[in-house]
Amino acid sequence: MVAECTTSQLLKRVAEIYDWLDSQIRRSAHPPVQCDACGKCCDFTRFDHRLFVTPPELMYLKANLGGENLKPMPTGLCPYNTDGKCAVYDYRFSGCRIFSCKSDPDSQSTLTESTLKKLKSLCTEFHIPYHYADLPTALNTPTNP
Ligand code: SF4
Ligand code: SF4
What we know:
The chain is mainly alpha-helical. The protein has one domain (about 5-140). About 50% of the residues lie in helices and about 5% in strands. It contains 6 helices and 4 strands; from the N terminus they run H-H-E-H-E-E-H-H-E-H. Strands 1-4 form a two-stranded antiparallel sheet. Helix 1 (about 5-30) crosses helix 3 and helix 1 runs antiparallel to helix 5 (about 105-125). The mean pLDDT is about 90. The structure holds iron/sulfur cluster (2 copies). The site of one iron/sulfur cluster has 10 residues, from loops.
């Protein structure tokens, strides 16, 4: 467990990674990626899709939930999808930001690799064990961050 002041530094760094990622997505998308925000890809079973997350991302989401714990995920639908909309949009995971059913999978893979490299080195720097777990596993593990 990281100390409180260290945690706030870590959260700030995750926010910086997300800012960097969002700027990369904006810059690389020519023409701009059209997403209908239909929320269908948040139902991983129906969409036949998987989302992998890392500890700093889970810590960042949890820290921004106003004291609530992370929700478990009993079905294939992300528990933060409410009526098709993301209830934690500003704090959503890097995979949620990168994935689009309407853009090039190769550029998504490249961006995923670069983002994971940053998140992994954050774990090393802050002495957090690195895991790359799919969302149900991460949310259903009682010891999640
Ligand atoms: S965090 Fe938001 S965008 Fe990501 S899977 Fe869940 S509902 Fe969808
Ligand atoms: S990426 Fe595709 S499936 Fe996901 S919300 Fe956007 S349009 Fe819907």
